[in-house]
Structures are given as C-alpha cells and as structure tokens.
TrEMBL record:
InterPro entries: DUF1453. This is DUF1453 domain-containing protein. Keywords: Membrane, Transmembrane, Transmembrane helix. The chain crosses the membrane at residues 6-23, 35-56, 62-80, 92-114, 143-165.
Length: 177
C-alpha cells in the first residue's frame, strides 16, 4: 500500500473519537457552558458561510443547501422544545433530545461512510490525475452539501437558543433568591 492510501486509515481513530464525543454531547445531562456554546455556534456559522461562498457557482448544490438549512433550523426548533432544563446549586444543566441529536449524527456518519467507501477510490484517482482541490468534491454532491447545511443550521440555531434560554433560567433563578 502506498502512503497516500494509508492516510485515510490514519484518520479512523480520530473519527471514532469524534463520534464518541458527539455521542456524549447528545446523551444525558450536560452542564451549560456559554463560552463553548457560543464558540461552537460561531465556528459553525463561519464554516457555513465559507462553504456557501465556495459553492456559489453551483446552483443545484446551493438549492440543496438551502433545503438542508431549512430542515436543520426546523430540527433545532423541535430539539430546543424537547430539551429539558434544570437549575441546581451547581449551575444550569440541560438534557438534549437523544433521538434528534443521534439522528443527525447517524445521518452525517452514514453519508461520510458512503462517500469514503464507495466514492473515495474514484475521487482519489481523479484527484491524482488532474491535481484537483480536495474540497471540490463537496460541490459535486448536492446531497452531501445539503446534509452539511442541515447540520450547520441545526447546531447554529440550537446553540444560540441554548444560550438565550440559559440566560432566561439564570435571570429566573436570581429573581427567586
């Protein structure tokens, strides 16, 4: 095997760790961490803007991105309504809806796994043939771009809503004291 063929295999442990972390964020009670939530929302927003700008000439991809964004926002609204908040002496906690969070994770992982297993060998050969940009592959798949837009829309809206609702809980708790 060539070093280029082994490179994707090196990312498997990193990907498994990321899946584990994502799982832990969607299951069970989570402490409210406003700085992290704001940072995640900001990073996802910047990523979404960068992907949209890079996809600008591909209108079919932008259409699927708009649809994915709309579904992501709708899922975030449903998710925030199903999120339970709890105020204790240790701080404010929230319990996200497991099914929505894990559903989005499975959707992303399924699509990435499909692209890796089925399409990666062909993309690697094409990239070596004409030295194409590695990120240009996302513009060739409206479905993948739509799923990324769904995830970006979900996390931006959900994290911002968590920030707003955590401030309301903090104000309500300080009024009770």
């Amino acid at each position: 095997m060539t070093p280029q063929a082994l490179l994707p295999l090196a990312f498997i442990p990193l990907a498994l760790f990321a899946v584990y972390r994502r799982y832990k964020r969607h299951v069970g009670r989570q402490p409210m961490q406003p700085v992290r939530l704001g940072l995640r929302a900001s990073l996802m927003l910047v990523l979404g803007i960068a992907l949209s700008i890079s996809a600008w000439p591909h209108f079919d991809v932008l259409e699927s991105g708009a649809a994915g964004l709309a579904f992501g926002i709708a899922l975030a609204i449903a998710g925030i309504r199903l999120t339970q908040f709890e105020s204790t002496a240790d701080g404010i906690f929230y319990t996200p809806n497991v099914y929505i969070g894990l559903g989005i994770t499975v959707l992303l992982l399924g699509r990435l796994l499909y692209r890796f297993v089925v399409l990666f060998p062909g993309m690697q050969a094409a990239a070596q043939a004409n030295d194409a940009d590695a990120f240009s592959a996302i513009h060739k798949s409206p479905l993948t771009f739509g799923i990324f837009a769904l995830i970006i829309g979900y996390y931006v809206v959900y994290n911002i809503a968590l920030l707003v609702l955590s401030r309301r809980h903090a104000v309500a708790n300080s009024a009770l004291v």
